[in-house]
Amino acid sequence: MPGITDEQAFRKAAARVVDLVFTDDDAYLDALPEAVESAIATPLAEVYLALEEGRPLERLDRAVRLLVDVAGGVMSEMPPELADLLRELRFAGRGRR
Hints:
By secondary structure, this protein is mainly α.
């Protein structure tokens, strides 16, 4: 049985963040503090599109880098589970390089 590749781990970490925030009813997104929602909504949408449309890894990587960069400025205002997943995503991205 083959092991999980760095790319698979990276995509899975990105998907966990998307799945947490973008629920069917947007309840989680709407419950975020305004500063957090404003900062992460657009870059997270790009991550979502990169995953859903099967875009090349480089495109996902750029979207994740932007997300992690903007999230850093509002990390202290995030719910702990979101902050933890973003840290995990940042680590998964570094592990690929």
